[in-house]
Design a protein that fits this description.
Alpha-Beta Plaits, 5 helices, two-stranded antiparallel sheet, elongated, 6 strands, 25% strand, alpha+beta
């Protein structure tokens, strides 16, 4: 998508199945990633544009699924929830990889699922569980029995140094307008 301003009207056009954003859109996204509760008026004032312009651009980015949702990031350890995390490498029959990845993605406790083609096609998944026993149950009863799963390698996370998602604020050097 390309966003172009022409007078009062903002038009979006499809470009290579990707969304192209201008500097104002990027600044609006930065503001929302920093604090999604910030008002349109406050964002507009900082950027030197009307709050209605901020509203219109956000609405269009929501409609085009650039903005997927608004959420709260919770530190579960601070509220007493203890869990273990594991990174799993699931080796599959190449004909079944996509289906296995979709099944994994639907499981509760599976946070992320990726396919990778290195020497062989495999699935990488991040899984959380309340205990080692719970993790064992997930692997033995939900993942290992899936048709196409050949082998599973599980690495327990013992110490977390960084956990984040892509942010326009800290990834701006990779954005090309």
């Amino acid at each position: 998508m390309t966003i172009k301003s022409s007078g009062d009207q903002t038009k979006m056009k499809l470009k290579n199945n990707a969304v192209s954003l201008d500097a104002t859109d990027i600044e609006i996204l930065r503001a929302l990633q920093k604090d999604s509760r910030e008002t349109y008026g406050a964002i507009g004032k900082r950027l030197g544009i009307a709050h209605s312009t901020v509203y219109d651009r956000i609405r269009k980015m929501e409609q085009q699924k650039v903005i997927k949702n608004y959420t709260a990031t919770i530190d579960v350890e601070k509220i007493g929830i203890r869990n273990i995390a594991a990174i799993m490498t699931v080796y599959t029959d190449p004909k079944e990889t996509e289906r296995v990845a979709e099944k994994l993605a639907a499981l509760p406790g599976v946070l992320e699922v990726y396919t990778s083609l290195s020497e062989e096609l495999l699935i990488i998944a991040k899984v959380t569980a309340t205990s080692q026993e719970d993790l064992h149950e997930i692997i033995a009863n939900s993942i290992a029995p899936l048709t196409g799963v050949l082998r599973i390698r599980t690495s327990l996370v013992t110490k977390k140094f960084k956990e984040t998602q892509f942010s326009i604020t800290n990834g701006s050097e990779r954005l090309h307008l």
